[in-house]
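Lab channel / #folding
Pinned by the channel admin:
"Please post every new chain as: sequence first, then the structure tokens as a reply. Keep commentary short and put observations after the output so the thread stays searchable."

First post following the new format, from NK:
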Amino acid sequence: MFTSTNRPAASRSAARALRAGSVERVVGGVGGVVAAAGVGAVATRGAYRLLNARPPGGRERWIRKNNRGREVTLLEGPAVAAGIAAASLLVPGLPGTLRLAGCGAALGAGAVGLYDDLNERGAAKGFRGHLSALARGEVTTGAVKILGIGATGLAAGVALRRDPVDRVLAGLVVAGAANVVNLFDLRPGRATKAAAIGAAGGVLRESRSGLLTAAALGAAAALLPEDLGERAMLGDCGANALGAALGVAAAARASRPGLVGLAAALAALTAASEKVSFTKVIAATPPLRALDEWGRVPNRGDT
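Reply from TO:
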């Protein structure tokens, strides 16, 4: 009789404890994501301030003209790459392999992107153009970047996975993500917005890799006002670093079928960019155009 009478009460207590635990996990998860994004943002703002105070090689070395002919600085890219790398090491809760892969991917992809930004040579454009030039014996800076990002992706894949097939697939995801984010860096703020949309699901997942995703997006968002205001740009350095870090986070949590799907989707986007102008597609699609233009300097005239 005693057991029968108290069983419902015990069940209710267990249910309340379960709900409390679920709420605690959700709150803790949200707090962790916010903290990770904050670490990325603070690290990036600090790096940008230091670089702006004393630009390596002089300020003029970093000045470029954007699509509207306005002078912008490329210092945003190294700051974002450094911010992501620092956040990968500092964010609480990340496993050692994820720290290593995230930091290494951001620095590796950022470094070869920076090499292309500062030393661009050759008339070849696009993935196919650079590889065709390489086949003819012409080593463009773009080809160096492609090979460097490929090596960076493979190194990250080796750090993240144990199975040889999974390592290769993870490497393709990291390298593909680095390249695809860079494909969107044709207008102020576009690459960061595209990366945020593409990686939003990764932030919401209850997984440690979501912390790396949040840190990378926080790092890029920290300098979004400068980007949208046409004072700075990500360049290949920042876009490659951002994409590579997001690729690491995605590859870390994906199953083998997931890796195959991600690699295929990224390859499809890369192939599509050789045939279709993403800028024209965005301009012809009102919702995408409105999102693309949000926050920019007025009277842009993007076409």
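NK: The CA atoms of residues 23 and 246 lie 27 Å apart.
TO: also worth noting, The chain is about 75% helix and 0% strand.
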